[in-house]
Every structure is written in structure tokens, then in C-alpha cells.
Amino acid sequence: MDMDGHERELWESAARCYVQAGEPLAAGRCLERAGRDSEAAALYEPAGAWREAARCHARAGAHRAAARCHEAVDAWVEAAQSYQRAGDTIEAAWLLAHALGWHGNALQLLASRPGEAPAADVAVGSDLVRARCDAASGRPRQAARVLAAALASAGLVPEAARTRLRTWAVAVADALARPDLGASAHAAFGRGSPDDVRVWEAWAQRVLGESAPYPGSPAPSSQ
């Protein structure tokens, strides 16, 4: 039965009271009852209620946001499905390959993409998915070749996608036990920003066991 305006106002009023009382989860539930899914999700996320936030985002049609929330709780299948609903088959394929180990499914998903020439970030992302599948399927030389080709095209990747694809490329290098390729991934996708350097230093300590100079060019000083 459809909710009338008066009932909706009551739920919204209850949500405001819970917000003022510092109870975001209860407020979120009231907003859900009022049909205010996006606002409910905005309360759930800071409270760490990721599954509830994902549910609300999905109902609101914000499938990428739903996927991000599913990833926060390692709900990889749900995240991959949400990325597919958002039309982001490369993100979905990466999760299938890397997080779930479903390499055949990942390659099948890549093959289902339209045949036109993809954007640079999609092309590089597709190569990284293939390299990850090769690395896990006993084809390290093939994986290294595909990874190297992806790194050679990194300069064409838009800024907004560089951090994500660096993470993927480093993961492939780690799966191959190839720190040389890992360092190359940092150099290819990084810009030498403070964040890039921090990520590099953490990786160097984890993989190399020691600090190491940043492999790329440092970002220009803002002074």
C-alpha cells in the first residue's frame, strides 16, 4: 500500500529527532520508511552500516555507491554485481579475478564488452584483469608481458583512474613476485604527490623490507 503524505512526514520527523539525539542508525531506518533512500545511506555510511547503505544506494539507483559499500565489508559478489548494474564491467571483472579468483568468469565478462575501441583507462584496466588471470593460471611470463604493456600505456590514463589502476597493477606484480614490475607500476601511474610517495613507502616496507627512493619524478613544489 502506498504511503500517504502524512505518514511520510511522521517518519521524516522521527528521523530528525533521532539525528538530534545522535542515533544515526535509527534515523536512517526512519528515512528508509519515508522512502528517502539516498539520505538514509548518507547516515548509514559514516556509522559504518555498510550493508544498509548499500541497500539504500541500490534502491536509489546509485549502483557504484552500492558497490563501494559492499567492498567495505568484503562482499565481493554483491560488489561485482553492483558494478555490472552500473555498467562498469571492468571493475566487476577485476573483483571476479582478484578478490574471488573466478578467472574464467572475469574473462567471459571482458569478452562480453562491445567491440568498439575502449577508452584508455578501460583498455589498460582490461589488460590488468587479463594479467591477473594469467598470473593465477600458471602463465607468469604471459602475465608479465601483458602487465608491461599496460604500464607502457599508463600515460594515457585519465587522472581520475590512475590511483585505482596503480593498485591493480601493483597487485598483479605482487602476485607474480616481481617487485621490479611493482616499482614500475608506481612510477608509471604515480605523479610523485605526497599520497603517491606514502603509498610507495608502505609498499616498499611491505615488499622490499626497507625504505627505498620513490621511483618516479617528484611532484613540483607548490611554493
Tell me what you see in this structure.
The chain has 223 residues and is mainly alpha-helical. The protein has helices at 5-20, 24-33, 37-44, 50-59, 63-72, 76-85, 89-99, 103-111, 120-136, 140-152, 159-175, 179-189, 194-208. It contains 13 helices and no strands. It starts with a helix and ends in a 15-residue tail after the last helix.
Radius of gyration of CA atoms, rounded to a whole number:
21 Å
> Biggest sheet, open or closed, and with what strands and sense?
none
Strand content: under 5%
The number of distinct helices, counting runs of at least 4 residues, comes to 13
Based on Cα principal axes, name the global outline.
elongated
Structural class from helices and strands? mainly alpha
Which percent bin holds the helix content?
over 70%
Question: How do the SSEs run, as a string of H and E?
Answer: HHHHHHHHHHHHH
Oligomer: single chain
Please give the domain count: 2
Number of strands: 0
| Poorly predicted sequence stretches spanning 5 or more consecutive residues | none
Distance between the termini: 62 Å
What's this entry about, in short?
The chain has 223 residues and is an all-alpha fold. It is built from 13 helices and no strands. The chain has 2 domains: 1-86, Serine Threonine Protein Phosphatase 5, Tetratricopeptide repeat, CATH 1.25.40; 88-223, no CATH class.
